[in-house]
Specification:
GO biological process, one term: lipid metabolic process
Number of domains: 1
Pfam families: adh_short_C2
CATH superfamily: NAD(P)-binding Rossmann-like Domain
Strand order of the largest sheet: 3-2-1-4-6-7-8
CATH class: Alpha Beta
Shape: globular
Low-confidence stretches: none
Distance between the termini: 57 Å
Order of helices and strands: EHEHEHEEHEHEHHHEHEE
Structural class: alpha/beta
Number of strands: 10
Largest sheet: 7 strands, parallel
Mean pLDDT: 92
Radius of gyration: 18 Å
GO molecular function, one term: oxidoreductase activity
InterPro entries: NAD(P)-bd_dom_sf (IPR036291), SDR_fam (IPR002347)
Strand content: 15-25%
Keywords: Lipid metabolism, NAD, Oxidoreductase
Length: 288
Amino acid sequence: MNGTLQSKVAIVTGGASGMGFATVSRFLKEGASVVIGDLNADNGRNAIETLSAEGYEDRVRFTTTDVAVENDVAAMSELALDAFGQLDIVFNNAGIGGAFGPITELDVDDWDTTFHVLVRSVFLGIKHAARIMIDQGRGGSIINTASIAGMGGGGGPQAYSAAKAAVVNLSKTTAIELAPHNIRVNAICPGVIFTPLMHSGNEEQAEEVIAEVQPLAKRGEGSDIAGMALFLAGDDSQFVTGQEHIVDGGLLANGPRLLGRLHNSRNLHRMAGMAFGTSGQAATVRRL
């Protein structure tokens, strides 16, 4: 098989579901070997079973990973070397919805957890990927999941939006630092992508809201992010670094106006808590 990523080795965090799993599948189809890092071990086992049934068992591995813990990220990176002998691509994609509610009611521990999962994880992913890629001496591609929520107000809760803005800037600064090593660093900024993290089980209502504000009629899917990740991972983007790549159906150009409209944000003025997405941890909610 000859694919865009033939003989490449990738790590995808949050790769057991949603955008991450769509990207893992696409990378495998394009010839790469992939290590999936995800906190949700059940999702990880299911992902491996599905991909093995498709004939990829020799080119995919799973490891339970808390992306905010350095030892876990280091072990995940070493697994790529132990299993496949090299590391060419890292997609720092794992995320949670994070702290939500009025700024006057946010719990400081929830705020810190949000930044640990969404920003500290990207720092750690870049750090350990860069160490390996520098030692290998042939460059590489690091891709970070940000969000259009980090590019203006009104696209998400305060902590989530601020964290994603940090991911955009971290991608730019490390792109400059790592450019002499031919290591490219880019951010993907999704709009509304229909994953369990986004719609919280209420797809129909989410579709109605998005139809009002998104110019393209097509709804965003994990495969749309996978397509951009494939471009950034491959040689077609070898002159692209330090950029935020918006994949949102024109939503940002139209002004997102999402906060308070989607199912998981419409009552934020009456609730506060913490959303853990597909990590396997239950959300906490306090009614105000």
